[in-house]
Every structure is written in C-alpha cells, then in structure tokens.
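Q: Got one fold?
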Amino acid sequence: MATTTIKLTCSLVVDTARQLEKLATHWNTSKSGALRRAIRSAAAGVHSGHNEALDALDRLQDMLALDHDSAHAWADEVTRERKAGKDGSTPQAFG
C-alpha cells in the first residue's frame, strides 16, 4: 500500500538545520525521515500527558521531604528575608 505524502517547505535557523542533519546521520535516514521521527516522538509525549518538568519537580519535592507545616515555615522565612533585604536590615539564616 502506498503512503500518501505532502511536500512541505520550511525555514530553519542554521543551528536547527545542523541538528537535523546530525539526527539524520545518527539514525541513518534522510532529513525528512529524521524530521518525521522527531515529530512523532514529540507528539507522543504531548498526547501521553507526560510532563518531564512536573516529574522533575515531583522528584525534587520528594527529596526535600517537606511536610505542609515545614513548607509554610520555609515560605514565611523567605518572605521575611525578602522584606528585611528591602529595608536594609540583615536577614537571619533559616534554621
């Protein structure tokens, strides 16, 4: 069965074009093939609802092991430090 294709013309900045060429070489395919593969990969991530930034935030929060009260105490301390910095006084260390 034949695959229907659409000819597409686009403009890329030089760095992006070089990266596309490197991907094509790495994957042993044409630039069109590399672009198709990259688009499919990006679309799969978007459609899966997977968010790497939120995953990283979750890992960071787990590492800190802050409970609700500790998180609020930290936020209050940061607020006090910021206010103290505005009026010229020296903020005290959190701890």
Remarks:
- DSSP finds four helices and no strands in the chain.
- The chain has two domains: 15-48, 52-86.
